[in-house]
Amino acid sequence: MVNVYSHRHYDTDKQLFEAFTEKTGITVNVVLADDDEVLARLEAEGDKSPCDVLITADAGRLGLAKSRGLLRASRSDVLNANIPANLREPEGYWYGLTMRARLVAYNKNKVKPGAITTYDDLTAAEWKGKVLVRSSENVYNQSLLAAMIAHNGHDAAAAWARGIVKNMARQPEGGDTDQLLALAEGIGDVAIVNSYYVGKLLASTEPEKQKAREVIAILFPSIGSFGTHVNVSGGGVAKHAPHPAEAIALLEYLSGDEAQTLFGAGNKEYAVKTGIPAPLELQAFGTFTADTLRLEALGRLNADAVKIMDDAGWR
Amino acid sequence: MTGTPRSRSSYRSKGLFPLISLIAVLLAAPLLVVITSPLHRAAPEWPHVLGTLLPAHLLETLVLLAGVLLIALVIAVPSAWLIASFQFPLRSVFRWALVLPLALPTYISAYAYAGLLGPTGSISRWSVAHGGPRPDIVSLPGLCVVLALVLFPYIYLPTRAAFMRGMRTQLEAARLLGSGAVDRFLRIALPLARPAIAGGALLLCMETLNDFGAVKYYGVRTLTTGIFRSWGGLYDMGSALRLSMVLLALIAALLWIERRTRKGARQTTDQVPGVPVRLRGTKAWFATGWCSLILLLSLGLPLGRIISDVFATLDRPVWSDVFPAFGNTVYVAVLAAACTMGIALLFTYRERHGERSDVAIRVANLGYAIPGAVIAVAVMALAGAIDRQGWMSFALIGSIGLLTYAFTVRFLAVGTQPLYGNLRQQSISLDESARLLGASPWRTFVRVNLPLLRPALLVSALLVTIDVIKELPLTLVLRPFNFQTLSTTAYELASIEQLREASWPALLIVLCGAIPVLLLEKLLARPLR
């Protein structure tokens, strides 16, 4: 048996847990809840916690869990071989399992493909009133800004946030999918969104989303010359895990070919394991260079990012 | 409580009082954890929260509160008056149907409205395609309308009850003196119903203040989103708890206003229901039209969207998840409602017949004023401390027992509020007569107060049941392994932006909530003893 606390509410995870049970005979028990509440539960349970594996949807929260002593270091050659070093914690406290890129979607009819190459380009005067982005409550906006602070410093990141607010097509509302639908309706020309929402939209059979497919293209902006911002969804073994061996077995399975392929096919996420193709829907837009920033930085700088957004008036 | 009979002699049944106090302390404990936290918990980001975050979030909170309250009053009070005083086509349907929006969780209605009238909603796109404007309900004013449309039954229910009972004599007298219908409404019914309206408005305000899903999706900044921003964004639980205190202070202010509103309100012992007057011609059609419009906007449109989404996702295997979730939802709702109502009755008894009111009961009633997720953290902190001792072979966290306890902490005020309101309307002379005849306080309560409490008791039970069915943050984090309810299922799908699939559990939540509503209406329709 292995007990999982997870923020990931996806169908793919359910399928993967079932497949894991079939393969190993180990039952997977799950509590799904949001990252912060899950961390609070782990903290309250202390050494009596039944949790073996903690899975979050944000590297920042994994760093937080480690610094609060909720995770333990584990060694696994399989995990180390499957997951690139910058996408896991060096001592094995947590491992990235899937990757999401914060990219720019644009209206093909209005924007030329080469018009934007960096996130900074979005703050140029020509995009005034044309940038769609969701609220700063969203963790992926926060982690994008945290990555900018890590690379370019606080002031440059603050200037970027102010520039985005100045260029917004409307006050932030809705989720990433809503930004894409707004793009198709001509409410803005460019949208800052997560890769897997683009993938899901492009794969959707819903009528209004199919219309969006026809006008939307994506590009991979870079933070300066550092590459496209990525965050990971990942997991670690809980500090007081009653079944640590099973926990590692589950993480290893999730980093293996079968699971990594399904994360892409089912949930349109990028695999962390090299050699696994990108989700079909996103392949057409070419490959990208991901920022190789050590992701611990995202957690460390998250609060600074939020403060910058508050100061910039990014709702 | 003014005018409570003071029992100076000792009765055996007073033995219940220590037990009641003990229960109150147990329920107040997590709230005490929250209230005392600013004293000992560091809040490193507090200067930023106080200087930048709080002003913006507080302002929008107040605007939202005022907007929702105003619109809900305009919807609820005239509707309650129409239903209570007049007979018109379809009245018997509207009578219960106007309570049904309560079964719709705010975030589900908010998503549905965004899908219709958001910038890319189906009605908006239709409008633009035909050369019209592009409406955008996904904004602060839009949210006021959406929330008011879902939450107005909190005011409608008690107000209608007040209009139906307790003012027949006055209204008859006014009518005989030649006062018109509008005049009777404004000068007699409205002032007499003021405590009921205020009580309902208080619940509505608390619901609005604690809303998270709808507010977040509409990009509105409230104290509740501020709490989550401090906690999850700034990684500063200390500041989040301080913001909870600000929220609590705001609710204390509302409670104070509600008390002031109640002050000077006349008590009435008239329990005879009035006979509705038959409306004819245009007046009748106006009444039917008004109620139809409210019903269409509050229930018809969002439910229509949900049902069309259900049909659009018929091929998806959502059923297998939804059935067990349905069973679990009914299970926890019944458990929590029974527990909450039992305790609410004990507390009501204690407040009516105790010499002074119990401080712990006051504190225990604050649970409704604090966001569910904050209560969850406090409950886990307490239960975790017990679990870590290892006295028991099982753990509290992740048990149905703790989940039920947390629901009771959270929704106790919903259970007690209608009961207190009703007791205030019961004349003290009833108690005094019973006591003079030698009945103990407990016997007086059971034989005299309780039968008169029946309608309020049903309202309480209904509100608690529906609240538990819709509840999210407590269930989400305190639940056992592999335990799904309808609202967790809907939330999981909505949070990954699969709004269409979320329509399945959403529809079942409404159906689930409709059962207690219909039950209530049937029971209330029976004549009082």
Largest sheet of chain A: 10 strands, mixed
Question: Into how many domains do the coordinates of chain A divide?
Answer: 2
Q: Percentage of helical residues of chain A?
A: 40-55%
Oligomer: heterodimer
- The Cα radius of gyration of chain A reads 19 Å
CATH superfamily label of the largest domain in chain A: Periplasmic binding protein-like II
Overall pLDDT of chain B, averaged?
A: 86
Pair with the most extensive interface? A-B, 54 and 61 residues
Quickly name the level 1 CATH class of the largest domain in chain A.
Alpha Beta
In DSSP terms, counting alpha (H) and pi (I) runs of 4 or more, how many helices of chain A?
13
Q: What is the mean predicted local confidence, pLDDT of chain A?
A: 94
How would you write the strand order of the largest sheet of chain B? 1-2
Runs of chain B in which pLDDT lies below 50 for 5 or more consecutive residues are 1-12
| Gap between N and C termini of chain B | 27 Å
End-to-end C-alpha gap of chain A: 43 Å
Commentary on this structure:
The complex is a heterodimer of chains A (315) and B (529). Chain A has 315 residues and is α/β, with parallel strands linked by helices. Chain A has two domains: 145 residues, Periplasmic binding protein-like II (D-Maltodextrin-Binding Protein, domain 2); 152 residues, Periplasmic binding protein-like II (D-Maltodextrin-Binding Protein, domain 2), CATH 3.40.190. Chain A is built from 13 helices and ten strands. In chain A, strands 1, 2, 3, 4, 5, 6, 7, 8, 9 and 10 form a ten-stranded mixed sheet that branches. The longest helix of chain A has 17 residues. With 529 residues, chain B is mostly helical. The longest helix of chain B is centred in the N-terminal third of the chain and has 40 residues. The chains are: A alpha/beta (315), B mainly alpha (529). Chains A and B meet through strand 2, helix 2, helix 7 and helix 13 of A and helix 2, helix 5, helix 11, helix 16 and helix 20 of B.
